[in-house]
Every structure is written in structure tokens, then in C-alpha cells.
Design goal:
The complex is a heterodimer of chains A (about 250) and B (about 325). By secondary structure, chain A is of the alpha/beta class. Chain A has one domain: Rossmann fold (3-Layer(aba) Sandwich), CATH 3.40.50.620. Chain A is built from 6 helices and 15 strands. In chain A, strands 11-10-9-12-8-1-6-7-13 form a 9-stranded mixed beta sheet, sandwiched between helices. A two-stranded antiparallel ribbon of chain A has the order 2-5. Chain A is globular. Chain B has a 7-stranded parallel beta sheet with strand order 5-8-4-1-2-3-9, with helices on both faces. Chain B has a 5-stranded parallel beta sheet with strand order 12-11-13-14-15. In chain B, strands 6-7 form a two-stranded antiparallel ribbon. In chain B, α2 crosses α3 and α4 runs parallel beside α8. Classes of the chains: A alpha/beta (about 250), B alpha/beta (about 325). Chains A and B meet through α3, α4, β9, β10 and β11 of A and α2, α3, β5, β6 and β7 of B. The complex binds flavin-adenine dinucleotide.
Chain lengths: ~250, ~325
């Protein structure tokens, strides 16, 4: 099986977020970047597990600048075979999907994996766009994926439950919690990753359809009102009369 | 014209659809146009969408179980046939699966998870939460056709009109490639992304055997239960209850956090809640800084007391 895993970088979850250029650009200075957790913990690991079971290759693809190579190498250390970095600073879900689509069309992959969303822009858009561009079925927010021959059984999160379905490869799938268990790269993996191919690819031309106007930080919360732990009637009264939420 | 995708489950609409129609009607009014809704497959009482502001309700027959390729093809064709300027759908599992596909099919600029009405002053500008709720971004969509998805609880559904007549829309339905085998849902519980009231608990609970009082509070309030990540990771509670940056992001009217410290990753998914109550025995717990109401005390004493007070209140009101 030929498996393609799309990985994205994201600011470390403890990052304090700020903006520059009149609040139009995310300030990356001092930010520690990590591999987007849904990509690393679930999507990449499930792809590696399938390869371990049935053979094949796991290719990583990232759209981003050379500074992303650290993150890509980590993915190789966890167990991907090779990687491609499309050399462009991603500006939107659309242009990211267009770059990956152009790359994926060359490779005739059986399954294209993504994380369910990135923890920076939280769009969950790239997978759906990519599936359309590749004219493939799309299974979003998958918590289970088993493959026998070219038939896959999947389970995905829906409101208050799950949906189980079957389909044939090729398809695009986005990974949610439960699809796999996080793997920590070991020393051997880290050493081997240094020798695995990481190809840098020129981007295709794309036109943006949205513009960032500005970013805002949420307003400061007013000070917390402490309620006497002995007097929960008072809390109920406040929630009813002051906050009007019950 | 503004077109709202009115998704249905077992022929029924959820509140998020009424919100999206209300939103579409308000947007249509400010753009000097009308709002229509499109439904797929068998739907009971699709005409009720008129009450929330849909001037017309369309139905495409012959659409079966969910397949993102089928749904997005039908919705995009409907938008083309009806010459929609803006297509709106709720943020939901269905919405997220088809959102990008529909935008690509229509060559439309798109923004998902919008949380306010667009600003039409000098363009079409929409806002959404980014960085898991740590910031808000404003985007301008520059294409003639626009696709947006609406966060739940952005605005309440408003009944303003009368039921509409339902018109059949003649659109080809492609064959599905995904074969849905089984749909498992827990009935009677409002899913977290739609919940208005959420009761959540963390490691301070000491063990899963103590959750009875949290469930009791949820039952009294008609709330949905949630938990912090380590609680789900250790199997004390099911994964779907995990809220935060790497779990479900929620924006209920009321979030009650019991025995949760308020780590930055937890806050990221819940700090958009309108009112936050924190019950914790540690005065230094970071959650107090994000709270509207705080109770400093032992949860094993405070929660039973709060449940009694809530019962008394419910009996009187
Ligand atoms: C990449 C990454 C992603 C993460 N994503 C998430 C996420 O999405 N969601 C999430 O929740 N976490 C997430 N975390 C974990 C997060 O950092 C915290 O570890 C976690 O939220 C802590 O859970 P907790 O508050 O239940 O437990 P603790 O931090 O252990 O807090 C327990 C609290 O209970 C209080 N307490 C104890 N006993 C009592 C008592 N008897 N009465 C009253 N109060 C009591 C304590 O004072 C303490 O404040 C993430 C971490 C990382 C690194």
C-alpha cells in the first residue's frame, strides 16, 4: 500500500499568542513549533501500523519553509519512509490543499491521511478540499481504520456517537483521537531519519480567495466573583438572576 | 440569494440548522436579498424552516446515507442552479466533511467556524476563533460566491415568519462510494458542541466511582457532561467527553468546572463559554483567572451542596 501522510506544524500548546504588523501577522518569535498533535499522534501512527501489517510505504508531505524540516525529520524518526516538503509558506487551507493535491496526483496513493484539524487555525478544511481536488471519498474525524485488500472499514465521530462504513481505496481520511496511540521516536529511529530522503519541491502557482483583515485577542475577563462554599443557594441565585444562564 | 444547507438526521433538524437559517435570513436582509434552505432526502416538516426566516425551502429527493462526495455534489449543484451568492452550513460532522469540497466545487472563497454576522462594510468580512480560542481572526472573502460554516450557539434561533412550502429541486444524485453500515448514537443527550449547559470534571474527582454527583448535577440542570484530558486518557470517562485544545471545543452558556486546574490547553477549548463557574480547593488554580464565579472548597462537600441548592431552585421554578 502506498500511504501519504500530510503533516503540519503548529505552535506548542502552551504558546502565548500575539500578533505584529498592526495585528495582521502571527508573531512567530519565541514560539516553539511542534508537529500538529492530530497528525503526529493519530494519523501518522495509524499509517505506520498499516504498513507494518500489510507492507508498503509511508510518505510524509508538508507545505512550508525550510524551518519545518525539524518537524518532518521527527515524522521520519517515528517511522515514515520518505518525505517531501513543498517550499511555500502556507497562507490558507485552499492553497495548502492545492499544493498537496498537485503532489499527490503524481503518486497514486491508496490512502491520504491528515489530522482532523490543526490546533492553530482550527479549520478542518484541508482534508475536505484535498479529497475534492483528488476526486476521492473522504472520511472525516476517523477513530478506527482497518484495511483488508482494497476494502477499508472505518468508524468516524458524529454528533453524540459514531458511524461505521466501508469503502474502497483510494480515499482521504482525517484522524481523530482513538485512531492510534502516540509513539515516541527512539534513538534508532532518530539516527535512521537522518538518512531518509526529504525532497524539497517547488510549489505550483495558486491564487488566494480570502485575505486576513486582522487578528484580535479576546478581552480580559472581569475579576472572578468568589462565592462562599457554605452557601450554594447564593451561587444558584447569581446564575439565575445575575448571569441569567439557568 | 443566500442558501442554507439544512442537514437532517433521521429526518429531523437540530437546533444548529435553525440557527443557520436565522443567520442566513439576517444576512439576506442586510444584503437586500432572500434566504432559502435546501434539505436532502426524506425530511419531516421541512416547511418549518420558514418560521426561522427561509423564504423558500427546497428538497432534493433520493439522497441516502452520508457520503461527502454525494452531499457536496448535490449542495454545490443546488447553489449553482439557484445562483446562491453565499452558502451557509452549520459546523457539524456533516458540515466539516463537505465544507471544503463544496467551496472547491463552487470556486468559492470560504471561512469555516464563523462566530458572528459578516461585516459588509467595504467587503464581505467574517470573524472566527483561531489558535483554539486564544485569538479571533477577521477574514475578507474576495470571490463572488462565498461559503461559510457557522459555529453553534452563535445566535439564538428566532421564529419570525410562517412555515414555507417545500419545493422539489431537480438535481442529479451521484452514486455513493461510501457504504454506511451502522450509526450508533446515544439518544437523549445533547452532544457537547451543541450543549448550552456543560458540567465538567477533572482529576480532582480522584476516580471514576465518584462521578455520580457530576451526573446528578447534569441531570438536574439538563446539562451535558465533559471532562479534562487526563480523565479521558486514563479511561475514567469516554473520549468524546474530552474538551480542550486537543478535544472538543465548546461555547456553552454555562460551563461548570469541578476539580479541573485550568491548564492552558484545557482553557483553549472552553474559554469561549459565556459564563464559567470553577469549583477548586486550590486558591492558586489558574482556572479562577478565567472564571466568572469561583468556589474555593473541597468538591466532595461543595458539589453535593450545590446539587441540593439546584434541586431546591428547580422545584421552586
Ligand atoms: C499537547 C497537549 C495537549 C493537551 N490538550 C488538552 C486538552 O485538550 N484538554 C485538557 O483538559 N487538557 C489537555 N492537556 C493537558 C493539560 O496540560 C493538563 O494536564 C490537564 O488539563 C489537567 O487536567 P485536570 O485539570 O483534570 O488535572 P490536574 O491538573 O491534576 O488538576 C486537578 C485539579 O483538581 C483540584 N482538586 C483536587 N482535589 C480536589 C478537591 N477535593 N476539591 C476541589 N478541587 C480539587 C486541584 O486543586 C487541581 O486544580 C494537554 C497537554 C498537552 C501537552
Amino acid at each position: 500500500m502506498k500511504l501519504l501522510v500530510c503533516v503540519s506544524k503548529a505552535p506548542d500548546t502552551t504558546s502565548k499568542i500575539s500578533f505584529t504588523d498592526n495585528n495582521t501577522v502571527f508573531d512567530e518569535s519565541g514560539i516553539q513549533f511542534i508537529m500538529n498533535p492530530y497528525d503526529e499522534w493519530y494519523s501518522l501512527v495509524r499509517a505506520i501500523e498499516l504498513k507494518e501489517q500489510a507492507g508498503g510505504t509511508v510518505t510524509l508531505v508538508n507545505v512550508g519553509p525550510a524551518s519545518n524540516d525539524v518537524i518532518i525529520r521527527k515524522g521520519l524518526a517515528i517511522g515514515a519512509d520518505d518525505a517531501a516538503r513543498i517550499d511555500m509558506d502556507p497562507k490558507s487551507a485552499l492553497s495548502t490543499a492545492q499544493q498537496i493535491a498537485a503532489f499527490a496526483k503524481e503518486g497514486s496513493y491508496d490512502i491520504v491521511f491528515l489530522g482532523k484539524e490543526t490546533i492553530d487555525y482550527n479549520g478542518a478544511e484541508v482534508g475536505s478540499m484535498l479529497a475534492e481536488m483528488l476526486d476521492m471519498p473522504y472520511i472525516s474525524f476517523a477513530t478506527k481504520l482497518d484495511v483488508a485488500g482494497n476494502t477499508a472499514t472505518v468508524s468516524r465521530d458524529i454528533e453524540g456517537g459514531s458511524e461505521i462504513a466501508e469503502l474502497e481505496t483510494p480515499f482521504v481520511i482525517s484522524a481523530a483521537k482513538g485512531l492510534a496511540e502516540q509513539r515516541i521516536p527512539n534513538m534508532r529511529g532518530i539516527m535512521m531519519a537522518k538518512r531518509k530522503p526529504l525532497n524539497v519541491i517547488a510549489p505550483v502557482e495558486v491564487a488566494e480567495q480570502i485575505k486576513t483583515v486582522q487578528f484580535e485577542l479576546p478581552g480580559e475577563k472581569s475579576a472572578v466573583k468568589m462565592v462562599d462554599p457554605e452557601n450554594m443557594d447564593e451561587l444558584v441565585r447569581l446564575l439565575h438572576e445575575e448571569a441569567k444562564v439557568i | 440569494m443566500i442558501l442554507v444547507f439544512a442537514e437532517s438526521t433521521k429526518g429531523q433538524f437540530k437546533k444548529s440548522v435553525f440557527e443557520a437559517v436565522t443567520y442566513g435570513a439576517k444576512l439576506a436582509a442586510s444584503m437586500g436579498t432572500t434566504c432559502a434552505a435546501v434539505t436532502m432526502g426524506e425530511v419531516s416538516d421541512a416547511g418549518q424552516l420558514g418560521i426561522y426566516g427561509a423564504a423558500k425551502v427546497y428538497n432534493v429527493a433520493g439522497v441516502g446515507a452520508f457520503d461527502s462526495q454525494v452531499y457536496s455534489s448535490v449542495l454545490a449543484d443546488a447553489a449553482k442552479q439557484l445562483e446562491a451568492q453565499v452558502v451557509i452550513m452549520p459546523v457539524s460532522s456533516t458540515g466539516k466533511a463537505i465544507f471544503g469540497r463544496v467551496a472547491v466545487r463552487l470556486g468559492a472563497g470560504c471561512v469555516s467556524g464563523v462566530n458572528a454576522l459578516p461585516n459588509l462594510d467595504g467587503g464581505f468580512k467574517v470573524k472566527k476563533n483561531v489558535f483554539s480560542g486564544k485569538a479571533v481572526a477577521e477574514y475578507e472573502i474576495t470571490t463572488p460566491v462565498k461559503v461559510i460554516s457557522l459555529m453553534g450557539n452563535t445566535l439564538p434561533p428566532e421564529s419570525t415568519g410562517a412555515a414555507a412550502t417545500v419545493e422539489a429541486l431537480d438535481i442529479a444524485v451521484p452514486a455513493a462510494k461510501v457504504r454506511v453500515k451502522e450509526v450508533k448514537t446515544i439518544d437523549g443527550i445533547v452532544p457537547l458542541p451543541e450543549a448550552e449547559l456543560v458540567v465538567s470534571a477533572g482529576r480532582g474527582m480522584k476516580g471514576p466511582e465518584n462521578w455520580g454527583m457530576i451526573e446528578e448535577m447534569a441531570t438536574i440542570l439538563g446539562a451535558t457532561t465533559a471532562c479534562s484530558r487526563p480523565v479521558a486518557d486514563t479511561g475514567w470517562r469516554p473520549h468524546h467527553e474530552h474538551v480542550g485544545q486537543t478535544g472538543v471545543a465548546i461555547l456553552p452558556n454555562l460551563y461548570i468546572a469541578v476539580g479541573i486546574s485550568g491548564a492552558i490547553q484545557h482553557l483553549a477549548g472552553v474559554n469561549q463559554s459565556k459564563v464559567i463557574v470553577v469549583i477548586n480547593k486550590d486558591p492558586e488554580a489558574p482556572f479562577f483567572k478565567a472564571a466568572d464565579y469561583g468556589v474555593l472548597g473541597d468538591l466532595f462537600e461543595v458539589v453535593p451542596r450545590l446539587n441540593e441548592a439546584l434541586k431546591k431552585y428547580k422545584a421552586a421554578n
